[in-house]
Backbone:
């Protein structure tokens, strides 16, 4: 059986594969960096592509996310799922309440399950955070997550050997 990276690489150019994977909810930059390592791409190139791919959805989520969530919440098929998702995301709001934008940066930047750009952007819109503080915090979090994942997937010493 072929691995995921081989399947993706067979259908898309590696750069496009990283860009697309980094935009997908729940996989995001974390999966893109790992995919870049699996494809043998140089880490600076892979990291840059993953960061770009990960931040592309942010303005759309923040601008249209509330409308989409409210619409889906009114449907029979998705209503309960959306209500549980909103509750789960808001349950993580303590970090933001305590530390403000720095908390949002940590929420997005620490690569744990259920955190990342999508959840951080939804959290920012559900908490009515101002865009001028939410977007920079999310972008700094993406950089933080990217560096953590790159060091984790390529190894600390190999990062410095390629620079």
Residues:
């Amino acid at each position: 059986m072929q691995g995921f990276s081989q399947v993706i690489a067979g259908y898309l150019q590696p750069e496009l594969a990283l860009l697309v994977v980094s935009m997908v909810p729940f996989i995001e930059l974390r999966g893109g960096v790992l995919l870049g390592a699996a494809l043998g791409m140089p880490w600076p190139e892979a990291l840059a592509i993953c960061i770009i791919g990960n931040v592309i959805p942010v303005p759309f989520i923040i601008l249209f996310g509330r409308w989409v969530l409210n619409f889906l919440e009114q449907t029979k098929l998705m209503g309960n799922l959306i209500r549980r998702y909103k509750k789960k995301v808001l349950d993580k709001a303590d970090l933001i309440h305590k530390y403000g934008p720095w908390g949002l940066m940590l929420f997005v930047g620490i690569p744990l399950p259920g955190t990342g750009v999508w959840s951080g952007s939804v959290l920012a819109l559900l908490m009515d955070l101002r865009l001028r503080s939410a977007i920079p915090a999310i972008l700094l979090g993406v950089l933080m997550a990217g560096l953590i994942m790159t060091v984790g997937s390529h190894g600390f010493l190999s990062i410095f050997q390629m620079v």
User: Anything to note?
Assistant: The radius of gyration is 17 Å. The CA atoms of residues 37 and 154 lie 7 Å apart. The chain has two domains: 4-55+149-156, 57-142.
